[in-house]
Amino acid sequence: MRILTITNCPLDPRLGSGTTVIRFTEGLRRLGHEVEVLAPTDYEAWPRARVAKQFRQGLGAFRAVRDRLAHRSYDVIEFYGAEFWPAIVDVARSKKRPLLVAHTNGLELLNYERERDYDPPRGIKTAASRAIHRTLFVRSFRHTDAFVALCEADREWVIAQGLYSRSMTAVIPPAPGDAFQDVAAQTLAAKEDRVCYTGSWTARKGIDHIAAVMNQVLRDNPKVVFDVFGASPDRPLVIGAFDPAVRARVEVHPGMDPAALAAAIARGKVFFFPSQYEGYGLALIEAMACGLAVVTTPTGLGGELDHARDAIVCSFGDREAMRTAIEGLLKDEPRRAVLAAAGQHRARELDWQVSVSRLSQQYSAWVDAFIRVTGEGSSVRGA
C-alpha cells in the first residue's frame, strides 16, 4: 500500500507521541508498504509564529496534502491529529480518493470533555477558543472513514458519539521500547526508595495532584526520593511546586537516551501517574516494564488495568487514595512486588511487531472494503 502519514507531533523519540508515529511508520515500511511522513517541520504555516498553532498546522497540512495528491496517488492517508480538518474535508469530497483514517495518539474531543473538570476555562476567550476548536475538530472525525485508537476508552467514546460504526474502528496499542524490554529482564528486587514520574509538567498530567500528594509522601517518608523525568525544560516550575523542606529530595533529571532512562526508572519502586487524560500513556507501560508498581488514574491504559491486580487505579483527584496507595506500596514490599510482577507481565505481552502487523492487516481490509463499496457509489462509512 501507499500510505501518507500526517502528524501533529515532532518525530522525536524522546516523546511518547513521537515514538508511536515513528514505530508504526517504520514498521509499515519493513512490511513492504510505501510510507511518506509529513511532520510539522514539513508543512506548518508561519512556523516562527507563537500563536494559533493548530490553525497554522491545519492550513499548512491542507496545502501539503493537495500538493502530494496532485502528483501521486495513495491507498491510505492517516492523520495523527484533529487539526487537519481542512485537508480531511477537502479530500473527502473528492470523487477518486484514498481511505482516510483518524489515527489518534489522543482523542482531542474526549480531552476537551475531561478539561471541563481538571482545567475549566478562566475567561470568555479561552472558553470560546475551545468551543471553536471542538466544533472544527468534529469535522475531522465525521469526514474520515476509519478510526484507530491506542486505547479502548477512545474507541468506545467515538462509537457512542455516532462518529463511526464499530467495524470501522480498531484499537492497536503501542509497546515499550527495546531499552525498556531489556531492563524488564533484570530482577525486580534491585529497587531503591524512589517514586517516579515521567511526562511533561502540564495540567493534563495532574501536576497539582502530583505536588500535593508527593509533598505529603516525602514529609512522611524522609528516605524517599521523587524522580521526575521528561520535564527538565520546566525544572524551576517543578521544584517550585514542592515545599522547601522536601525539595532536596525532588530530582528533575535531564534528557536521557532510552537506555539511560530505562535504567534510571528501573531503580524506583513506585510509578505515580495521576494523569487527567491519556490517549494511552506510553510512560506508564514503560515503567511497568521496568518493574515498578503503578499508582494511576482510569484514563488511557490506566482505564484498562485491573485495580489491585495490575496496578492501583485511583479516581481522578482523589489525593488521599493516591497518597495512601503510594505509602502503602513503599511499606508493604510483598504487595509491591506482586503488583510490579503483574505489570511487568502485562508489558511483556505487548510487541511492536505484532501491533504493526495488526495495523497493516486492518488497513488492507479497510482498503479492500473501501474499493468495493465506493465502486458501487456508496459511502465506506456504512461498511
Brief description of this entry?
The chain is an alpha/beta fold and 383 residues long. It is built from 15 helices and twelve strands.
Highlighted features:
Rossmann fold, six-stranded parallel beta sheet, 2 domains, single chain, 383 residues, 48% helix, disordered C terminus, globular, alpha/beta
The CATH topology of the largest domain comes to Rossmann fold
How much helix, percentage-wise, in residues?
Answer: 40-55%
Straight-line distance between termini: 20 Å
Q: Rg to the nearest angstrom?
A: 22 Å
Oligomer: single chain
Helix-strand makeup class: alpha/beta
Report the CATH architecture of the largest domain: 3-Layer(aba) Sandwich
Number of helix segments?
Answer: 15
The chain-level mean pLDDT equals 94
What number of structural domains do the residues give?
A: 2
In one word, what is the shape? globular
Q: Which helices and strands, and how do they pair?
A:
Blueprint: E1 2-7, H1 16-30, E2 34-38, H2 40-43, H3 53-71, E3 76-80, H4 85-92, E4 99-103, H5 108-118, H6 124-143, E5 146-149, H7 152-160, E6 169-171, H8 178-184, E7 194-198, H9 207-220, E8 225-229, H10 235-240, E9 250-252, H11 258-265, E10 270-273, H12 282-289, E11 293-296, E12 312-313, H13 319-331, H14 333-348, H15 352-375
Parallel strand pairs: 1-2, 1-3, 3-4, 4-5, 5-6, 7-8, 7-10, 8-9, 10-11, 11-12
Helix pairs in contact: 1-15, 3-4, 4-6, 8-11, 9-13, 12-14
